[in-house]
Amino acid sequence: MTALTLSTAGAATLRADALVVGVAKSGKALVVAPGAEAVDKAFDGRLAAVLETLGASGAEGEATKLPAPAGLKAPVVLAVGLGSAPEDGESFGAETLRRAAGTAARVLTGSKKAGFALPIATADDAAAIAEGALLGAYAFTAYQENGKDAKKPLAEVALLGAKPRDKAHKAAAERAQAVAEEMNRARDLINMPPNDLTPAAFAAAAQTAGKEHGLKVQVLDEKALAKGGYGGILGVGNGSENPPRLVRIAYTHAKAEKTLALVGKGITYDSGGISLKPAGHNETMKCDMSGAAAVFSAVVAAARLGLEVNVTGWLALAENMPSGSATRPGDVLRMYSGKTVEVLNTDAEGRLVLADALTRASEEHPDAIVDVATLTGAMVLALGNRTFGIMANDDDYRSAIHEIAEEVGEQSWPMPLPADLRKGMDSPTADIANMGERMGGGLVAGLFLQEFVGEGITWAHLDIAGPAFHEGAPYGYTPKGGTGSSVRTLVKLAERTAAGEL
Prior knowledge:
8-stranded mixed beta sheet, 14 helices
């Protein structure tokens, strides 16, 4: 785990493997960003000129290494691009700093310590740099035989320019560390192979975290689910030798005035069931529990931060497999709510497990419910691989979540719930079908879920199918594989709820 310190040393005197500085584009010129004055001085004021000679342009995502001159204790200087320089009186955006720090941490894999001399004008800047560096230093090597010999992630991040004795800076760094570590917890779970991360194993991980952080954890196994009438979760899990689980993990605060319920889709592997996915579509389906991982991590983060709000997480865990006992297209399931659902496609399983969890969460009458799921390919087609969709039964709440997501650096977009699409889920056999019109499939899924939310409860649905699992090359602080998408949004949402702003 990468350590984080707010250093009292200056850039010139810090003993580290490398110093990270920022550079930006100002018109056609390359300029050194604030925070790197001592480093530029060691280059006799010619750092930007030297970097231009080496081909640096200051573009975001760019990283240029060069040997440090006399006058610096660190042997290497790493210049990361920050994009266009801000106008006079303005500062670099938090996400720009976050991504630059993440890029630097990735480049410095194998280093023991790096000093980050990036622009810090406020405590929020310090938090963004710390968060980006800790997230960029992530690596998942647990299953690699040569993992012990491979280069390890950057071991220590030393923030230069922050104020170690300032309460705001110290609190910002502590929050950044807690959030980043919980995002990395979610990434670990998402990257874990499905033969190890079964529903029971996921539930056990929640129980372990519960003991460590003082959380109340309740696990319903297949017998308890059958006794309770959780037909959706059982219907999805029936085809697997690894039975399903419903986990309730709760954080409470004595001064809390509101309760936020988070519901996560936790399909630990999704073959599609009898409606089997074709080759090319099932190789990454271990990530279909990303919503549950995000919810789990957000609850733990709320506990670590001591937020004055009650946060209850519901992890709907199942493995969707084909077998003689699997649910068939045409079967009718009686859900926990009592409603019946005709299953037209067993690969539309996420909404079935979520429906039961939403109904159960509604029984506790929270002030709001937010579900998170890698729910539909249709949302990926609509918004791409880096943006999640937000639907809600309250336009103001949807807007608030969108603003929060943008603030914390998670790309999102508000989506509608058109009433006319509901008719497509009418069933001649059951109360509702689990499929509707093909066009607008992501919205149809949201409308299905809305049917299982308790009356009068504010609800939102985050479809993170695009950004939950990154199959391309790493960028910024985003690794290849599980990303931890929506964790930051959920944590900030809990903070806003605690503050009485929502």
